[in-house]
Automatic annotation (TrEMBL), chain A:
The lineage of its organism: Bacteria, Bacillati, Bacillota, Bacilli, Bacillales. Residues 4-146 form the PTS EIIA type-2 domain. The phosphoenolpyruvate-dependent sugar phosphotransferase system (sugar PTS), a major carbohydrate active transport system, catalyzes the phosphorylation of incoming sugar substrates concomitantly with their translocation across the cell membrane. The enzyme II UlaABC PTS system is involved in ascorbate transport. PANTHER family: ASCORBATE-SPECIFIC PTS SYSTEM EIIA COMPONENT (PTHR36203:SF1). This is Ascorbate-specific PTS system EIIA component. Keywords: Cytoplasm, Kinase, Phosphoprotein, Phosphotransferase system, Transferase, Transport. It is found in: Cytoplasm. The keyword Lipid metabolism does not apply. GO terms for biological process: phosphoenolpyruvate-dependent sugar phosphotransferase system. GO terms for cellular component: cytoplasm. Its main location: cytoplasm. GO terms for molecular function: kinase activity. It comes from Thermoflavimicrobium daqui.
UniProtKB/TrEMBL annotation, chain B:
The keyword Ubl conjugation does not apply. Keywords: Transferase. One of its GO terms (biological process) is phosphoenolpyruvate-dependent sugar phosphotransferase system. Residues 4-95 form the PTS EIIB type-2 domain. This is PTS ascorbate transporter subunit IIB. GO terms for molecular function: protein-N(PI)-phosphohistidine-sugar phosphotransferase activity. Pfam families: PTS_IIB (PF02302). The keyword Transferase applies.
Length: 146, 97
């Protein structure tokens, strides 16, 4: 079973991390493993939060980590990790974070379709809650495809 | 009819700002406000001509001092009620100018 915008292999559930940096690291490593981006891109996603603040926590409990399209990005890709224990990113209102999406894009336009689908997920608070607590990737794919 | 030039701003102008742009566009449609929404990164936003900027609090506080147009700051990027509550008064004022 495969949803149109995220692969089951790109999902890790109930990950244990000590910091928001580590959470982005784990989500970024999935993109690296797929050869969609490299360690430099993962580092850039973490650096972006250091420099620009935790605005990537777009809605309560969900962060969307990303950095600028660059040579480091080989293809558009998106990953998702859920955290066993939610972690603070330092956001005024949307902490603590349960779900971390990481995405990389080669250009400015191609990834739009995935982002549109992601945006509709972000609007659905009960869906986010269900994804945060499940231990089944199939369940996540099913929830994201609804 | 007057058309507003709006930019949604995030760190790189392609992720968060794209999500925000979609939601601002929906609000414009629902409120029958004529406007074009584009995206920009925080570095180039100050140099981009526009009528109003939508962004997060973190970036908005940085931007406010370097731009002359209103900056609408949003906590939840997909919350249309928040976009409407904070953005509509500004948009309506601009339309009336």
């Amino acid at each position: 079973m495969k949803s149109s915008w995220i692969d089951k292999e790109n999902i890790q559930l109930q990950v244990e991390v000590q910091s928001w940096e580590e959470a982005i690291q784990v989500a970024g490593q999935i993109l690296e493993r797929n050869h969609s981006s490299d360690a430099q891109y993962t580092h850039a996603m973490i650096q972006a939060v250091h420099e620009l603040g935790p605005y990537i926590v777009l809605v309560p409990h969900v962060a969307l980590a990303h950095a600028r399209p660059s040579q480091a990005v080989k293809k558009d890709d998106i990953s998702l990790i859920t955290l066993k224990d939610p972690i603070s990113f330092g956001h005024q209102q949307n902490d603590p974070v349960h779900l971390v999406f990481a995405f990389c894009a080669t250009g400015d336009q191609q990834h739009l379709e995935k982002l549109t689908l992601l945006a509709s997920v972000l609007e659905n608070e009960s869906l986010i809650k269900q994804i945060a607590h499940t231990t089944s990737k199939d369940e996540v794919i099913k929830l994201l495809s609804e | 009819m007057k058309s507003l030039n709006i930019i949604a701003v995030c760190g790189f102008g392609l992720g968060s700002s794209m999500v925000l742009k979609m939601k601002v566009e929906e609000v414009l449609r629902e409120e029958n406000i004529e406007g074009k929404v584009s995206t920009a990164d925080v570095g180039s936003a100050a140099a981009t001509a526009c009528d109003v900027i939508f962004t997060s609090y973190e970036l908005g506080e940085k931007l406010e001092s370097s731009v002359t147009v209103p900056v609408v700051m949003i906590q939840n990027f997909v919350n249309k009620a928040e976009i409407r509550e904070k953005g509509l008064p500004v948009l309506q004022r601009l339309m009336a100018e």
